[in-house]
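Journal club prep — side note

Before the paper discussion, L.F. wants everyone to see what a predicted structure for a comparable chain looks like in C-alpha cell form. Sequence:
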Amino acid sequence: MKWGFISLLVAACILQNDAALPRPDRLRIPAWARSAAIVRDDATLFDRPDWMSRRLGTAEKGARLPLIEAARGLGCDGSWLLVGDSAWVCDSVVDVSREEPFAKPRALRSDQLPFRYYFVDTDSVYDYPDIESGRLKRDGRQLSPGFGLAISTVQTVGDQRWGHMSTDRWVPMNELRRVQPSLFSGEEIHSDVGFALDFGWVNRERAKVFSYPIRGASPAKLRAIHDKVFWGKTRIVDSVEYVQTSPDDKKPAEWMLVSDVAHPTIAAPPSEVERTDERWIDVDLSSQTLVAYQGARPVFATLVSTGTRKRGLNFSTPKGVNRIWVKLFISNMSGMNDATSRYSVDGVPFVQFFDAGVGLHGAYAHDLFGRTMSHGCVNLAPSDAERLFYWTTPTLPDGWSAVLSSSADRGTIVRVR
C-alpha cells in the first residue's frame, strides 16, 4: 500500500537533544503580519527551524496558521516561521498575510464524508489538468476500471459535467458510477455492562430467525444485514450453535445461528495500556468487531471489515499491539489486487495508521461491515471512522492535514487479535 506523502514525513526523522542544539537565529516579523497562509498541499511542519529535525505533521492548503516568530535555519532558503506549538514551516510554502489565523472548517456532507465518491467502470475514462484540456482531450491520463475517485465540486461547461478531483485534476462525469456510502453506525456504551455485551449485529443478508433452536426448522422471519439484535444465551443442537436474540420475557422466542451474528466481546487491556483511564482500541478478527475502551470500561462498539484472502494473495490484517503513529484527514491509497491488476482509491477519510501501512479508516466502497473485505486495513463505516478519529490521539490540530505521534501526544494503542 502506498500512502503518498507519508514517507516524506518520516524520512530523515531524527530525535535530538534540545539542550545540545544551538538557539535559532531569530528574525523580525513585520508589524502588519498576522498569519501564514499555506499555499501548497500538505506542507511539512517541523519541531525546529531545521529540515533535519523531527516532523510533526502537515498543514492543509488554504489554512492560515498563527504567525508567532521567524528564524533562519537549515533547509529553507528564506525564513522558518513558527506557526503553532513548536511547529515550524518554511516560508517557501506560505504567503505571509495581514488576515487573522483561520482554519477552514473540515466540511462533511450529510453522510459524514468530505467528498462525493465515484468509481470508474470502463477503460475509456481520462482525467485532465483543467476543463479546457479535457474539452480538447489534451494531457489526459487514463484511469483504470475499478479506481475510486473523490469529487469535491462539479461544473457544467456546455453539455458536459466535469468533476474536480481530490488530486486537483478534472474528469468528465458521464462515465462514472456514483457510490452510496454505508449509513451503518456502531453503538455507544453508556453504562457498566459487567463482563459481557448483550447485543450484536446481523452479518449477512436475509438471515433466518427461528422460534426454536431446532435443526431443519422453518424460519419464522428474516433479518437484514446490520440489524442490531439482542445477544442472550447460546445452545448447541446437533453440532449447530444458536443464540437467543430475544429477551427471556418475549414470546415467542427468537433464535439465530451464531454464525449469522457478529457479537463484540469484552477483553482485558493489554499490558501496554499504562493508565487505568487510558483510551485504547481492540479489534477482534474472529467476530469482525471493534470495541473502544477507557481503561477496562468499553465505551463504543462497532463492526469492521479487516483483510481478506483473494485471488491467491493474503491480505490478512496482522495481529499485534501497536500505537497510532500518524493520523490523516484524507489519504489516497493504492496497491495490487493480484499479480496483474492494481487498485486505487482517492480521498479515503479519517485514516489512522498503527502498524506501518495498516490502519483504521473510513471505507466508502462497500457496505459489508462484519465481513473480511480489505487489503489489510481495518475498514470502518464513515460515521464510525469519524467518531474514532476525533476520540484517539495524537490530536489533529486545526489547519493541519496530518499529525504524527510524539512523546507529548502519544498515539492511542490498537490491539488486533
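L.F.'s comment for the group: Helices lie at 6-10, 131-135, 382-389. Keep this in mind when we get to the figures.
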